[in-house]
Amino acid sequence: xxxxxxxxxxxxxxxxxxxxxxxxxxxxxxxxxxxxxxxxxxxxxxxxxxxxxxxxxxxxxxxxxxxxxxxxxxxxxxxxxxxxxxxxxxxxxxxxxxxxxxxxxxxxxxxxxxxxxxxxxxxxxxxxxxxxxxxxxxxxxxxxxxxxxxxxxxxxxxxxxxxxxxxxxxxxxxxxxxxxxxx
Length: 183
Fold this sequence. Notes:
The chain starts with a helix and ends in a 6-residue tail after the last helix. Helices cover about 40% and strands about 20% of the residues. The protein is an alpha+beta fold. It is globular, with a radius of gyration of 18 Å. The strands form two sheets. The chain has a five-stranded mixed beta barrel with strand order 1-2-3-6-5. A two-stranded antiparallel sheet has the order 4-7.
């Protein structure tokens, strides 16, 4: 029992030390993690060509795989039971301009491993990085084209909430164009 407690104590000390080091590390221009970790993660993903944009938060990559961007929710444009929502067309156009016909690096989040990185509609859940290293998911929120979608856990949840707060405060995008009932 004493040995077990000592091991737990040492593990908690180690975890505390590691988290302190991570917090002290400089943040990269990509939101959410330290530069070395993010760079390693970005290299781990594969580039895929975007063949179509379904709406602001869903793309189709070659050969024919639907990808739902993790942590973002743009206003609807193609929902079968909903009208086109305020700023939905602008969000879709932003995503189209950013990625359609271009290659993006898709990065999966470990929190979705259990569900095989798929949502309930069979879409792959991923972060999409542009060729210059910008995370599309974060840019959608930063520029006011999307809400932070925090119903499920994901690695960048805290950062995405902060980006949304900043977009609301400025106000930019849908935060300047839509009434609260439309959002």
